[in-house]
Write a structure and sequence with these properties.
80% of the residues lie in helices and 0% in strands. It has 75 residues and is mainly alpha-helical. It has one domain.
């Protein structure tokens, strides 16, 4: 019985880990899409770099810095 319990726990942990990985991956993809959209909006003059944090609070300060660097390279 004990070995079966260990096996069940192992399977459950594996499934949890897979689900957590997928959630993290989905969030990362969403953030990358947002960053690309922000860059496009800046290029088209819809927003300024200084406005990123106000309009996209889900982006971190590191994300904003990365976007600034990308925009500078495109200029």
């Amino acid at each position: 019985l004990s070995s079966k319990e260990v096996e069940v726990v192992t399977i459950m942990m594996s499934l949890f880990d897979d689900e957590q990985i997928m959630r993290t991956y989905a969030k990362d993809m969403e953030r990358e899409t947002t960053k690309r959209n922000v860059i496009t909006m800046i290029e088209k003059g819809r927003i300024k770099v200084e406005e990123i944090s106000a309009f996209f609070p889900e982006l971190t300060s590191d994300d904003v810095e990365e976007i600034e660097r990308a925009v500078m390279q495109l200029a």
